[in-house]
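Hypothesis: this fold can be encoded by more than one sequence.
Test: take the structure tokens below, design a sequence, compare later.
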């Protein structure tokens, strides 16, 4: 009887990947957790979903894939750990970089939901990209630096944030909210939780470092330096579909 229930849950989970609505994704998250409770038998089924979707069919990774991957990382089963590592040694997001930047550490921090550390590292990585492309040694970005940042690298950083935050965080998420706010910065700050009672939130204690935060809350950018850097990032060709 248990095998029948597990097989049915597995089929239900697979079928829902064809649907894009949030309700279906929430059901997928619930089913994934239930399948995980079956131990090694359930875990191998979850791995097979990731293998089929991401390795065989080359589907675009979404945050349900990310959630399944993170669940599997918690397994104590040696066979599960080995199969997961063999199939996805660098995680489920290809860590592509036009400049040879290693995004492994960012992937690890985001997988573990260490968002404050991941936020700090993101700023370091963006500066490193700018230092290479613009030939400077500054530890901050000018808006004029942004246009030279590689599309591939910005997309890798963004995908890591999205996939490991239930789709809540990332530059492209922030950009959509900014556009939905008619590019009004005050409305945008309010929507993503960067202001409180019309005042800029204080770093770090007044920001939220978990997925209870508003959509678009992370990664952070220094508002005190103005909006030009963030505006340039939102207008970067990385987000042109």
């Amino acid at each position: 009887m248990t095998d029948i229930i597990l097989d049915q849950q597995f089929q239900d989970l697979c079928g829902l990947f064809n649907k894009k609505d949030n309700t279906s994704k929430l059901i997928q998250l619930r089913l994934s957790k239930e399948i995980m409770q079956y131990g090694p038998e359930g875990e191998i089924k979850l791995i097979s979903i990731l293998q089929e979707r991401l390795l065989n069919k080359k589907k675009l990774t979404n945050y349900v894939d990310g959630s399944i991957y993170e669940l599997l990382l918690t397994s104590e089963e040696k066979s599960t750990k080995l199969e997961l590592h063999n199939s996805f040694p660098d995680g489920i997001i290809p860590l592509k970089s036009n400049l040879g930047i290693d995004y492994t550490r960012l992937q690890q921090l985001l997988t573990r939901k260490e968002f404050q550390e991941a936020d700090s590292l993101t700023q370091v990585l963006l500066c490193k990209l700018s230092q290479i492309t613009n030939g400077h040694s500054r530890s901050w970005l000018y808006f004029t630096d942004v246009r030279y940042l590689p599309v591939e690298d910005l997309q890798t950083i963004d995908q890591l944030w999205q996939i490991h935050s239930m789709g809540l965080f990332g530059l492209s998420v922030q950009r959509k909210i900014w556009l939905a706010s008619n590019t009004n910065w005050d409305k945008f700050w309010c929507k993503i939780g960067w202001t409180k009672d019309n005042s800029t939130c204080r770093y770090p204690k007044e920001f939220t470092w978990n997925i209870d935060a508003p959509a678009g809350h992370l990664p952070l950018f220094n508002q005190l330096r103005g909006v030009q850097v963030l505006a340039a990032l939102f207008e970067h060709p990385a987000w042109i579909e």
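Residues 115-134 form the longest helix (20 residues). The chain has two domains: 2-87, 104-239.
Hypothesis status: open.
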